[in-house]
Amino acid sequence: MSTTLSQPSSRVSAALQVEDLCVRYGGVQAVRSVSFTVEPGEAVGIIGANGAGKTSTLRALMGLVPRTASTLSFGESDLRRTPARNMVRHGIGYVPEGRHVFSGLSVEKNLMLGAYSKGWGRSQKLELDGIYEQFPVLGEMRQRPAGALSGGQQQMLAIGRALMSKPDLILLDEPSMGLSPKLVDDTLAILLNLCGAGLSLLLVEQNAELAFGATSRCLVVESGEVVTEGSTKELRADPQVRRSYLGI
């Protein structure tokens, strides 16, 4: 796998700052006063069991569900009133749970849709070439319908589509879901490659081993709250985390 990726666009000094993020579905509070920061070039993980509030946290950050926060910013941009469709203009890419590729469209058209906010020109063509270099299988299958790809290939396509906008921060929701152990390893290699290119990552994962392997710091979420956080080294050594998330 090639390690060629374009560098983040213009916001390499931007940090994601989140304070008192809350999400409520009717009478149920799914996210409770979650606060954290993702520094420039940092990879941060959010781990927890099913229903812990991990996906709701990402969807709230993207503006896909109603939320409140005392601070929700990326660099100089206040995102509290920014609609989901405009997040990409602030340098934020998103790979949703379940990938959500456009099954009836070709691989190439799926990737081109990732650059919609930039228009189409020489820069986007170079970016597309870079995606094919990074993920050769996508280049080989560029004219095939996205629905014909395997789960792992669709995950590559979803990540490639997010990269087409040249983001500075990528939010990834359960990238290992439904993948074989071999493809989980491939996904880890992709995430480490993204970090090596200077991108910031916020990774939601139920697979704690993948999250620990791809990030330098993690939050542990239960019932919508951050119950502990620390470096991956610290969390790997935590007896409760080892029992609950590593099966040790």
Task: Please provide a written account of the structure.
With 248 residues, the chain is α/β, with parallel strands linked by helices. The chain has one domain: 3-Layer(aba) Sandwich (Rossmann fold), CATH 3.40.50.300. It contains 9 helices and 10 strands. The strands form 2 sheets. The protein has a 6-stranded mixed sheet with strand order 6-7-8-3-9-10, sandwiched between helices. A 4-stranded antiparallel sheet has the order 2-1-4-5, with helices on one face. A hairpin with a 2-residue loop joins strand 1 and strand 2. Helix 2 runs parallel beside helix 5. The chain is globular and about 45 Å long. It starts with 15 loop residues before the first strand and ends with a helix. The relative contact order is 0.20.
* N- to C-terminal distance: 32 Å
Number of strands: 10
Radius of gyration: 17 Å
Query: How is the biggest beta sheet arranged?
Result: 6 strands, mixed
The CATH homologous superfamily is called P-loop containing nucleotide triphosphate hydrolases
- Strand fraction band? 15-25%
Percent range for helical residues? 25-40%
Gross CATH architecture: 3-Layer(aba) Sandwich
Shape: globular
Query: What's the rounded overall pLDDT mean?
Result: 89
Low-confidence stretches: none
Question: What is the CATH third-level topology name?
Answer: Rossmann fold
The CATH class label is Alpha Beta
Judged by helices, strands and strand pairing, the structural class is alpha/beta
Count helical runs.
9
The count of domains is: 1
What series of H and E elements makes up the topology? EEEHEEEHHHHEHEHEEHH
Strand order of the largest sheet: 6-7-8-3-9-10
